[in-house]
Amino acid sequence: MFSIAIDGPSGAGKSTVADILAEEYGFVHVDTGAMYRTIGLYLLRNQIDPSDENAVSKALCNLDLNVEYIDKKQHVYLNGEDVTPFIRTNEVSTYASKSSALKPVRDYLLDAQRNVAKKYNVIMDGRDIGTVILPHANVKFFMNASTESRAHRRHKELLEKGESITFEKVLSSMLERDKNDSSRKIAPAIPAEDSIPLDNSGPIEETIAFAKNVINERLGK
Ligand code: DC
């Protein structure tokens, strides 16, 4: 199996780039953030403090999380319900970021993520794919973009989804999540030593062209 890891902070455009590359190479795009978001959604719906390790641990026993690929598109199921449309709100982002710092949450998702990569050729995006989940990935990218452009991207996405939120609020909660995600003790969002930096501040076509060159070379194309 061939695997490509794309890690990086929120709003860098990992998902969009991974979608395009997955289509191009016929790989499955595994969006691991969606799995953390599904847990975040469960905690939010059940009013469980996402930083309370004991409470979150108990919650995980009542939670059945499934990931399916329908026409190569990822759907996440929470106790049998397809919650894919409900996981992209700003509130769920906060719950996902806080609970993702907890070991029980990361342990819960580790095998699920590795198992997909055993079954399919994957392009997997997240925070710790190159460092923890797929340390032997064939290609590892660490993607970034300027803070402004990341916040603009997230703001636009939320407005399109009908959430009424100011740019300033998006920016401040994004910076707070970045801090949580990159400074946590377990699996912080940092580049793997053998990762290739992928800057997505400019036109997406340039990012894709750069990534394709690297991937083609590794595929021996
Ligand atoms: O990529 P995203 O914004 O959908 O991720 C939501 C949160 O989940 C993010 O704040 C950090 C966490 N996450 C993580 O800790 N590890 C991953 N592999 C993916 C996401």
Main features:
221 residues, Rossmann fold, binds 2'-deoxycytidine-5'-monophosphate, three-stranded antiparallel sheet, single chain, five-stranded parallel sheet, 52% helix, alpha/beta
Offer a concise description of the structure.
The protein is an alpha/beta fold.
Measured by DSSP, the beta-strand proportion falls in 15-25%
Instruction: List the ions, cofactors and other small molecules found in this model.
Output: 2'-deoxycytidine-5'-monophosphate
Oligomer: single chain
State the shape: globular
Rg is: 17 Å
Biggest sheet, open or closed, and with what strands and sense?
A: 5 strands, parallel
Number of domains: 1
Q: What is the ordering of alpha helices and beta strands?
A: EHEHHEEEHHEHEHHEH
Describe this structure in words.
The protein has 221 residues and is α/β, with parallel strands linked by helices. The chain has one domain (3-213): Rossmann fold. 52% of the residues lie in helices and 17% in strands. It is built from nine helices and eight strands. The strands form two sheets. The protein has a five-stranded parallel beta sheet with strand order 2-6-1-7-8, with helices on both faces. Strand 4 and strand 5 form a beta hairpin. Helix 2 packs across helix 4 (90-99) and helix 4 packs parallel to helix 8. The mean pLDDT is 95. It binds 2'-deoxycytidine-5'-monophosphate. 2'-deoxycytidine-5'-monophosphate binds at residues 10, 32-33, 36-37, 93, 96-97, 100, 126-128, 177, 181.
